[in-house]
Amino acid sequence: MGYSAPIFWLGLMGLLIFYAQLDWVSGPGRLDVAYDDLVDPVTGVLMLDAALAGEWEVFWNAFSHLVLPSALLGYKSVAFISRMTRSFMVEQLRQEYITTARVKGLSERRVVWRHALGNIAVPLITVIALSYADLLEGSVLTETVFAWPGLGSYITASLLNADMNAVLGGTLIIGVTFIGINLFCDALYRLADPRAK
User: Fold this and answer.
1) Per-range mean pLDDT, top range of 5-9, 78-82, 163-167, 184-188
2) What distance in Å separates the CA atoms of residue 136 and residue 127, rounded to the nearest whole number?
3) Which residues contact residue 183 at a Cβ distance below 8 angstroms, ignoring those fewer than 6 apart?
4) What pTM does this model have?
5) How confident is the model at residue 197 (pLDDT cuts 50, 70, 90)?
6) Is 52 contained in some domain?
7) Looking at residue 161, what DSSP letter applies?
8) Cα distance between residue 101 and residue 106, in whole Å
């Protein structure tokens, strides 16, 4: 469910259930209208600016607006990571070296955490990096559904206004971020598996 459902549909269902029916979280936008312009932007991060100004009502209102979009993006990422981790672990637990470790009398916990998980570290790093990169892609739709002012809604508004320079600039930022994540991932390979050097 978490990996196959489109993020915009999950966002709409989340708003319908948790905002409209249960009233557990705040709705779209960064802040309720009543709290606009109460905090001067110092850092550009609304919650941090509210905390620095001592405006705790604004802080908690901004936090309640952040809960649902971040939970949905996290839910989609965790679904993908857990699915892939399970697939990698099932494959590793069938290997002969795992049987050998069990025959030697190692505890199941040590076999799973030390031997099997250690050997799936490299593909798991790739999955986590791709999942983080997927957050950028999912944020475009999530920001649109939740009326959140960010890079995703900026690109969407630029597309609707036929401002191709802004669209290309936003796409370039996302592309550079993807490349940076992949380079960081390659550096982590060397730490996870010394044979990668």
Assistant:
1) 163-167
2) 15
3) none
4) 0.75
5) low
6) yes
7) T
8) 6
